[in-house]
Write a structure and sequence with these properties.
Blueprint: H1 2-15, H2 17-35, H3 37-43, H4 55-88, H5 92-121, H6 128-137
């Protein structure tokens, strides 16, 4: 019995059980907080007007974000199509890299779209749920 307990402890240390547990708990708490709109409303996101930006500056920022968003979407589309092409040629590693690049570009395009949404709303601290709700409504 003592041998099995020691073996389990050695395996836990070899795998890094405590670190994996801590990382998973952190990710779970972060994900839960990300979708919790009440926590964000309690914080009350800062108003963009209170930061002192002019309307011209915000319009220019929106145009820049839109331009970057379109560039990322084009690169993501091209990378995805290239990945499909390589996948049909049975080149797995190249297609994996291309699909990874397209996911990375889509994540960046989401980031800029979310920032544009916050500028349109006129406040910082919008939740992803609010963004998703507005995006599905087409606002």
């Amino acid at each position: 019995m003592k041998f099995i307990g020691k073996l389990i402890n050695v395996l836990k240390r070899a795998v890094g059980w405590n670190q994996l547990k801590a990382i998973n708990q952190y990710l779970f708490r972060s994900g839960k907080a990300l979708w919790d709109e009440t926590q964000i409303r309690k914080k009350g996101g800062a108003s963009i007007a209170s930061l002192g930006y002019s309307k011209e500056h915000l319009q220019e920022t929106m145009q820049n974000f839109k331009r970057i968003l379109v560039i990322y979407l084009i690169v993501a589309s091209l990378a995805f199509l290239f990945g499909l092409y390589k996948f049909t040629l049975h080149d797995g590693m190249s297609s994996l890299v291309a699909f990874s690049l397209s996911v990375l570009c889509l994540a960046q395009s989401f980031r800029y779209h979310f920032w544009m949404f916050q500028i349109r709303q006129g406040r910082l601290g919008c939740s992803i749920g609010e963004w998703l709700h507005a995006w599905l409504k087409g606002k």
